Every structure is written in structure tokens, then in C-alpha cells.
Amino acid sequence: MMPRDATPADFPAILVLNETFVSVLSPLDGERLARLHAQAALHRVIEHDGRVEAFLLALREGADYDSPNYLWFAQCHARFLYVDRIVVAGSTQARGAGRRLYRDLHALALKDDVPLITCEFDVEPPNPASERFHAALGFREVGRQPLDGGRKTVSLQALEIAAGGSSWAATVVR
Known about the structure:
This protein is of the alpha+beta class. The chain has helices at residues 11-20, 30-39, 68-76, 97-111, 128-137, 161-164, 168-172, and strands spanning 3-5, 42-48, 51-60, 81-88, 116-124, 140-147, 152-160. The protein has a 7-stranded mixed β-sheet with strand order 1-2-3-4-5-7-6, with helices on both faces. The radius of gyration is 15 Å and the shape is globular. The two termini are 14 Å apart.
């Protein structure tokens, strides 16, 4: 279960995973996925027995992306990595896949001297699994934002890379 770079051949499986968890993500179609993939700073998958079971897609500042959450971070921070989405199949959750993907993202942040990894998760309606996962990695809330005409509220999260030091990636994969 080692991460590898995503390829267009993975897109059908990524779209199925995204649709499975669309209630806590934004919808995604093939055209939008291809556009995000082309701009991604990191787009990794974890495959098991030939099946994509997890993926992470992250963008840097300066991307041509209309997500209100990405735009919020772009207005507040000059340099950052933004996790647009991380999805782990239900059968694979709690087995370290998400942590492995974040370890790769952290390594990229260190290599490129990017001070923040950012993301968001729903707090209304709540997504307690994502909240617990990100808290365990050391993310902290830096803002909240209502979406979809107030039907949804997200917690905007950031992880300061300098604060995590080089030992962070070692603690991420236990």
C-alpha cells in the first residue's frame, strides 16, 4: 500500500471514490478532474490488489481554481499547499493510507520550502472522521466559511510545516 503518482488511467476509480463520499466533498466530473490533475502540485493514489483505494489531490498557490476554500487561502497566504481532497475507501480507513498520502505532501512542502499545508472539512453538517484525522496530524482551525447559501459550513485548517519539523512525517506513519 505505497502511494504512487496518479495517472489519467486512475481517473475512473478516483471519480467513483469521490462520488462515494460526495456528501462531504464537492462533486467531481472527468473534465474537472483532468483540469485539477494538470495543475496539481501532488496527485497521489494508493492501490491495493490493482484497485485504487485512496487518493490525495493538492494544489499550490497561483492555481487557476474557483473553489471558494482555495480562494480563501489564496487571499490569506502567499505560499501554501492546498489539499483539495483526500479520499480513503471505507474498507481501507484506519489502516494508514491517509497518513501515507499526507507524508508525501509534507515531504513536498519541506522540499519546496512551503510553510503551510491547508485544507478544510465540513463542520455543518459535521464530518467528525475528517476532524479527528486532521487534528491528529496537527492541523488547527484558521477560519470558518459558510457555503452553498449557508447549508454548509467548513472549518479552514492549516498545518505549519516549520512547527512540525522533520520528525512530523515519521509520526504521521505509525
